């Protein structure tokens, strides 16, 4: 059976692959659901010590599936998708084993939030990043909960507002990724080997210390930000921005 998130288990490591290159590994409802099911399997395997989240194709993740969210006609239509996105990010944060993002490709919009939700992120030389929400009439609302605790404040100010692209080293300098590496696979293998030396209890307790402050933000803000994101995506301005993006033209607010 075809799957958008195949995974294999190699010793103490589960390796997941975002494998929907046709839409640049966008976070469709189907992809999110399959990732949840895979993480269920991780919970059922006490021998696992780490999850590696990689990708096929030249894009790690393009963010939410614009085709899916733009098809809604009301705020309620977007609520389910935004709730699913929030639950996916929270699931990664709450998973009792570390999650490593293995990136060597483009990362856009919600894909940056996914990157920041992972405990460790390794980015290769082909990696580029951009918070493109501002250019289609929305904002990085939900992903701000994982991004703002990790990014340097001035970097967040700049890239939230400009939508500019930046590379792996700049992403590492601002705290979005852990390591900018010329050899992602080798670096990830070194990290998983080091993690495998930890005990299950030790890993669980140590991860909880780093994720607790972010989960507290989710407790306070997730519902409000998800509702706000749903409102923005079905707004007239966002519908124009998404249409312009898909039609490769300038939106009507650019004169």
UniProtKB/TrEMBL annotation:
It is an enzyme of class 4 (lyase). The keyword Lyase applies. GO terms for molecular function: enoyl-CoA hydratase activity. SUPFAM superfamilies: ClpP/crotonase. Its EC number is 4.2.1.17. Gene3D superfamilies: 2-enoyl-CoA Hydratase, Chain A, domain 1 (3.90.226.10), Lyase 2-enoyl-coa Hydratase, Chain A, domain 2 (1.10.12.10). The keyword Cytoplasm does not apply. It comes from the Bacteria. Keywords: Lyase. NCBIfam families: PRK07827.1 (NF005879). Belongs to the enoyl-CoA hydratase/isomerase family. This is Enoyl-CoA hydratase. It comes from Mycolicibacterium diernhoferi.
């Amino acid at each position: 059976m075809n799957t958008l998130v195949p995974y294999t288990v190699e010793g103490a490591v589960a390796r997941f692959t975002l494998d929907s290159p046709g839409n640049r590994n966008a976070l469709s409802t189907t992809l999110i659901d399959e990732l949840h099911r895979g993480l269920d399997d991780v919970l059922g395997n006490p021998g696992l010590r780490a999850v590696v989240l990689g990708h096929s194709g030249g894009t790690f993740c393009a963010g939410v599936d614009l085709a899916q969210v733009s098809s809604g006609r009301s705020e309620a239509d977007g609520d389910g998708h935004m709730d699913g996105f929030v639950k996916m990010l929270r699931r990664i944060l709450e998973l009792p084993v570390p999650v490593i993002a293995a990136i060597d490709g483009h990362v856009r919009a919600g894909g940056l939030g996914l990157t920041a939700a992972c405990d460790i992120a390794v980015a290769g030389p082909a990696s580029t990043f951009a918070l493109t929400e501002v250019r289609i009439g929305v904002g990085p609302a939900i992903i701000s909960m994982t991004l703002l605790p990790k990014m340097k404040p001035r970097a967040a100010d700049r890239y939230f507002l400009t939508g500019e692209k930046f590379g792996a080293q700049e992403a590492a300098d601002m705290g979005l990724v852990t390591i900018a590496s010329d050899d992602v696979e080798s670096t990830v293998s070194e990290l998983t080997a080091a993690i495998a030396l930890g005990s299950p209890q030790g890993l669980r307790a140590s991860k909880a210390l780093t994720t607790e402050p972010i989960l507290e933000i989710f407790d306070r803000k997730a519902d409000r930000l998800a509702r706000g994101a749903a409102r923005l995506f079905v707004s007239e301005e966002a519908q124009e921005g998404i249409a312009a993006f898909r039609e490769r033209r300038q939106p009507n607010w650019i004169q």
